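To close the chapter, one final illustration. This time we ask the reader to focus less on the individual chains and more on the assembly as a whole: which components sit near each other, and how the overall shape emerges from the parts.
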Amino acid sequence: MWDRNQMAERAAQELEDGWYVNLGIGIPTLVANYVGDKDITLQSENGMLGMGPFPYEGEEDPDLINAGKQTITELKRTAYFDSAQSFGMIRGGKIAAAILGAMEVDEKGDLANWMIPGKLVKGMGGAMDLVAGVGKVIVVMDHTNKHGDSKLLKECTLPLTGKGVVDRIITNLGVLDVVDGGLEIVELADGVSEDELRAATEATIV
Amino acid sequence: MNKIYPDAAAALDGLLHDGMFIAAGGFGLCGIPELLLAAIKDAGTKDLTFASNNAGVDDFGIGILLQTRQVKKMISSYVGENAEFMRQYLSGELELEFNPQGTLAERMRAGGCGIPGFYTKTGVGTVIAEGKEHKDFPTGENGAMETYIMENGIFADLAIVKAWKADETGNLVFRKTARNFNPPAAMCGKTCVVEVEEIVPTGSLDPDQIHLPGIYVHRIIQGEHEKRIEQRTVREKA
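The assembled structure is written out below.
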C-alpha cells in the first residue's frame, strides 16, 4: 500500500517534460516534490505560471499567494496575469494536466469533489473549470473513505464537479484508467494484490 | 479631467445606492480594495449584490459588510473562510450564487467587453448547468460535437478594485498575484473606482508595461493598505 508521499511520487511519473500543470490542494501539492529533472511549470489559477516554493520566514509577500491562499515565491520563469486570462488558458486546453483530490470518482469518469449536501458548502473554486478544460485529469485520493467504503463507484452519489472528465486515478492501492465500460487496472501498489484492489472497488473493473 | 480623489469616501461620493450591484477585485485577501470596502461600510449602503471571488474573512474584506448586514447577495466561487457568511447563508439572510471561478472571471471580462453571453464547457453535467441554455459545437476531435452552456456577462453598477500603481490618467500596474480579479472586475463596472499604493506622475509608467489602461478607470485614491496575509506558510532555511 502507498502512503501520501508514495501516491504523490507515483503521480509525478505522469508528468512529461515541458508540461504546464495545475496541482490541487492536499496530496496533489506534494507532487511538486517528486518531479525530479523534468521541466515542469506549475500554474496557480489565481494568476501565475512558474510557482516557486514557500518563502523563508520574514520573506512572505502578501501580494504573492497560491490558489490555497498560502504565501509562495516566484521563479525566474514566473509570469503573472489576471484571473480571466488564467482561466482562459485552463479552458483553452493550454494546461497539459491537473492533479486533483476527490471525494468520489465513478466508472464513467464523473468526478465529485466540491460539495456534500447538508454539510457546509464552501464552493467549487476553480475545480469545475480545471476538469472541463485541461488536457488530462489525474485524481489522487485514498481508495476508500474513513468508513471503509469504496470511493471508486459505479455512479457518483455527490453533486458532480465534472461529467466524464477523469482520465486516471491514483490511490493508495494502485493506478486505474477510465476506459470504455469501466476502470482498467494499470498498476498495483506495493504489496497490494489484484483481489484486494477489486474488493475495495465498487466500480466495474474491465 | 481630474480622476484623483482625496480619500475613499470622496471617491465613492454620489456612486452608492441601496440595492446596487458591485464587482470587486481580489482573491482571498490578496489584492482586495480594502479602503473602498471600509468606506462602503461607513456609508451604510444596504442590500448590496457583490460579484467577488471570495467573501473575505469575518473581520476583513467583504466580511466587514456582512457583519453590518449590508450584503443581500454574493456571486462567488469559494466562501469557505468566513464563519459569519456561513451563518447568514444557512439562516437564509443571505443569497448565494456559486459560479465556477473561471466562469466568474470570464463573466466580468465579457461584460466589460460588451458581450452579454458566452458558451463554456465548465459545469456541463453539474448543478451549475441546470436551467441554462445548452448548445453543441464541433470542437472535439475530428469535428466531434461537444456540449457547452451559456453564461451571462456581468454588467455591474460599480467596480471597486485595488492596484499597485496608477498614473494620474488611471493607467494601472498591478503587483504579482494581487492582479487576479482586479482587471476583469474593473472592466465590468459602469463606474470604476481604484485604490492604489502609489499615484505616480503621468508619463512615469512605461506605456508597454501598463496592465489596465486608464479608459476603464474613473476615480483613483492613494492610501495605506494593511494587506493581510491569510495563510502564512514558510520553509526552513537549509
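Chain B touches chain A through 55 residues (CB under 8 Å). Chain B has two domains: 8-100+154-222, 117-152. With these observations in hand, you are ready for the problems at the end of the chapter.
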